[in-house]
Amino acid sequence: MASGYPDFEGGKRRVYNTADWATDVGLAKAFNAFANNQAWNGVASLIYVVPPGKTLYIMGAATKSMASAAADAELNQMCELIIEDLPSGDDLWWQGGNGGVGQSFTQPIKYDAGHSFILIARNKANHNCNIQVTALGYEV
Questions:
Q1: Residue 27 has what pLDDT?
Q2: Which pLDDT tens digit goes with each residue over 13-40?
Q3: pLDDT in tens, 64-122
Q4: 8 SS3 class
Q5: 3-state DSSP assignment of residue 140
Q6: At 35, which CATH number?
Q7: b or e along 37-67 (b: 16 or more beta carbons within 10 Å of the residue's beta carbon)?
Q8: Structural domain harbouring 27
């Protein structure tokens, strides 16, 4: 893991939280995926394999779901957000919501080198939706 102070004005007089430090030294990661006009159970997803010698920490994730057709806009836009790990196949975090859902983690979700971070947003409405998913973290 890197050490020392980020090279910023006044940095040596400041205590950094991990997320701020990772951003300041260029280790922050942002993951995004989207899929339009997804029927029930359709997904927007991504897979990221952690490189050798690195560890990925996920600090938060969010998704949103919007009706594809204006006629469906007043209906419930049910969706779910899932964070998985491979090779274990474990669901590490899951949450559902109406129109979207998000969570920041006080304890980050950790992925060791060689593991795959899988981020999935799934449409659970009974009509087609446009869905987007985002996760933020850092890699050291």
A1: 80
A2: 666 666 666 667 778 899 999 999 999 9
A3: 999 999 999 999 999 999 999 999 888 889 999 999 999 999 999 999 999 999 999 99
A4: coil
A5: coil
A6: 2.60.120
A7: ebeeebbbeeebebeeeebbbbbebbbbbbb
A8: 18-139
